[in-house]
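Instructor's aside before we start: the two examples that follow are unrelated to each other. I chose them only because their records fit on one page, so don't look for a connection. First example below.
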Amino acid sequence: MGARSITNGTVRCARLGFVLTLLLLVPILIFASTPDVSAVNVKLAWDPSPEPLVTGYRLYYGTSSGNYTNVVDAGNRTDSTVTGLEAGTTYYFAATAYTGAGDESTFSNVTSYTTPGSAPSRSESSEGGGCFIATAAFGSGLAPEVVTLREFRDRYLLTNGPGRAFVDWYYRVSPNAAAFIAEHESLRTAVRWGLTPVVYGVKYPVAALALAILFPAAIVIRKKCLSV
């Protein structure tokens, strides 16, 4: 009777653990499959340089022609996909070629592209303000993660007094911290790992709440099963 009781309890724990595992997988699948509707990707290509010493190419882009705020090293490829562009915004692109000795050519002809959709609205107080630490960690102010955090700031923090006070404090202390992080790759990696769950929590609050509730429950069930 005792052996049967232990067996039945183990089976029940196994079944419950299986159900909890499935429930935990649902938010993870949502994270992996839900498209990012706020960001636009574009693929660009250019003719290879005839110079034999050229070993790679860089693609520069920004929202003002000749004033490029972002760069992508394409290596020896003659195409590159730029991700995280804001909808309804005109971007300007120019490429350069470089050699193994570090020499770099002048900019190519400029190509412009206006992304589809409507540009995101921002309050006046947020215009020009950046998520400095996130930008330093992810390498670009147009990275999808940075765009998500910036939209959260505009929609939920800048619309109330406590949120605005937090943003003001952040803008006072974060530039120096961001500059220090940008200089150390290990810190950039650590900050990216730390910000990733925050970004997903902002983008998918229901799924994040489900994980927050179900994960501790799964641990409790596992401990009970191990003690049976």
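Example two begins here.
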Amino acid sequence: MGPDSGKHADVDIVLARELHRILIKFIGLHHQKFLCAYRAGASCGIRLKKNQEKLISFLYCEGQTTPSELSKKLDLEKGGVTTLLDSLEEIGFIARMDAPGDRRKTLVVLTGQGKAHMEKVMTEQQEILLNILKQLKRSEVEDLIENLRRATEIIERL
């Protein structure tokens, strides 16, 4: 046990189970309500595979990173990330470069072509999202955004 082992003794297995259940349900709903709608409505030129889309979406939102970080953040095997990077580099969406100050480390970045593609995709997805959210009141969407922001802040601290 670490130095903080007794710090939050009021957190128990019942809470852990409930969080686990909610996270699984959330992932399924996110896929069903949003990701499937995005794929169904996609019309932005090159049709990428799901993991290619995940990878360049992550780079677009988070910026440059290493292949190892992509593997961790996207829950993909390192070899799978290498294959994805090769395919995205081949179509001109990403580039690999040496990290400044550490030539042993490789950074992955979106190219201008990759950024332009993602800007089209993001605009299209925001329009799809807008149509989905029209089913809700403005106050419900504001609550959803605030709750997701807060949940993200808490999870980042873990």
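The chain has one domain: 14-156.
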